[in-house]
Specification:
- Helix content is 45%, strand content 12%.
- It is built from 15 helices and 8 strands.
- The chain has 2 domains: 135 residues, no CATH class; 227 residues, Vaccinia Virus protein VP39 (Rossmann fold).
- With 413 residues, the protein is an alpha/beta fold.
Length: 413
């Protein structure tokens, strides 16, 4: 199939996820459960999601206009009224439940083999100088407050010494959340960034790269493969994710990445010591204070002429309709992403300028996840559970080029 058909389409099957030695063994029945949940997410996006706009336009907005004698003033007013609508209640409840079920299936798989997974991770990690953990590091309040993405234990909780269970669950369930849109290894963002750099800045040859909020390292490994001679440091706050991410990298034959447990607000690196600093879907899980501190750290750590790039959900613009603002806020309220809504309203370019970057050096693009041709169908990158919310915003910002659903911003120092 060379292009997306007109009819409703299905995500790739779970058996096309990338295999590696650290991945938990998934049974036939659990594979079927993952396939069901991925298809449910697609149905919610393609089938039920459009009904929210109909409910808004045909019922909620007219009723509010009649009762209040005016139109909605902000997205908060829309949310208050839409929460009363039966169709929105059904869609929102099912979307929340699909995320909870994704973790229920993932944890049932992982906890049944937790000792095996922990031992395997330890066999890859033991004696390596490319993994550095800090047991005294305090988890920031913005992370400790919630289980991000409804993921029990978030990124940092440990059930036992040397635990990797939360990370193993995250790895096997990424397919469901993105409905197969993130490539076989869930690294579509990192693949897209590496491809962008190689094609856009042909002469750029970074020797030292920093990836902040690396998680299990999905998006830093494509960068490591694209720049095999570079020294790459991947930083995160969660020890289980770093243990698993390091072991995963070793299992996949990637040895030029050092995984380090640090808080991005206070990075223990020398000033002007990195050529490229990047993040992938990181900022919406921080806070206003943290964002500003981390952005200043990025500026401090970049060499003159260095590059910083960030992949995130697109922010609200002055022209973004209130309904779109409301619907894209869903994750802030129901997917345990409390900073999601606030970040959408911030001018991230202004934040970069306040940190020291100059506007003439700013970069803005749109990118889509890069998926494997011949393994995933070419329309697989359209399967994101957020694609329906993003469609309206793609064409509106004339200053941002490209046709993808992700917003990439950055700057040269």
């Amino acid at each position: 199939m060379s292009k997306q058909p007109d009819a409703r389409i299905l995500p790739p099957p779970y058996d096309r996820v990338g295999k590696h030695d650290m991945r938990a063994d998934v049974s036939h029945d659990d594979t079927a459960r993952f396939n069901f949940l991925a298809n449910l997410n697609v149905h919610l996006s393609q089938g039920l999601f459009p009904g929210n706009r109909l409910a808004y336009e045909k019922r909620v907005q007219p009723r509010f206009n009649r009762d209040q004698g005016r139109d909605f003033a902000n997205r908060q007013e829309i949310r208050k009224e839409m929460r009363k609508d039966a169709h929105y209640q059904t869609w929102a409840a099912m979307r929340r439940n699909s995320m909870e079920m994704r973790h229920q299936v993932g944890l049932s798989v992982v906890l049944g083999q937790i000792n095996k997974l922990n031992a395997k991770a330890n066999s890859y990690n033991e004696g390596k100088n490319t993994l550095s953990l800090n047991s005294e590091l305090e988890v920031p309040g913005y992370l400790a407050a919630v289980d991000n993405h409804c993921m029990p234990g978030s990124y940092y909780s440990e059930l036992m010494e040397g635990d990797v269970s939360t990370a193993a669950n995250y790895d096997i369930g990424t397919f469901v959340t993105g409905a197969g849109s993130m490539s076989c290894q869930g690294d579509g963002g990192g693949r897209a960034l590496a491809k962008f750099i190689k094609s856009k800045f042909v002469e750029f040859s970074p020797k030292r790269i920093l990836d902040l909020g690396c998680g299990i390292g999905s998006n830093v490994l494509p960068i490591a493969n694209a720049f095999p001679d570079a020294e790459i440091l991947a930083v995160d706050i969660g020890a289980p994710f770093l243990r698993y991410g390091h072991a995963r990298a070793q299992a996949m034959g990637v040895s030029n990445v050092q995984f380090v447990q640090m808080d991005g607000e206070s990075l223990d690196f020398e000033a002007e010591s990195f050529d490229w600093i990047q993040t992938t879907m990181f900022w919406h899980e921080t806070s206003v204070i943290a964002l500003r501190k981390i952005m200043r750290e990025i500026f401090r750590l970049l060499v003159p002429g260095g590059l910083t790039l960030h992949l995130e959900q697109p922010n609200f613009e002055d022209s973004t309709p209130l309904y779109e603002q409301f619907i894209r806020d869903w994750d802030a309220w129901y997917n345990n992403e409390p900073f999601w809504s606030k970040l959408h309203t911030m001018d991230v370019l202004d934040e970069m300028e306040q940190a020291g970057f100059n506007r003439p050096s700013f970069i803005e693009e749109r990118l889509s996840p890069d998926v494997e041709k011949g393994v995933y169908p070419p329309w697989a990158s359209t399967m994101s559970r957020h694609v329906a919310e993003q469609n309206d915003s793609r064409a509106r910002n004339k200053q941002v080029t490209g046709g993808g659903g992700w917003y990439m911003f950055g700057a040269w120092k």
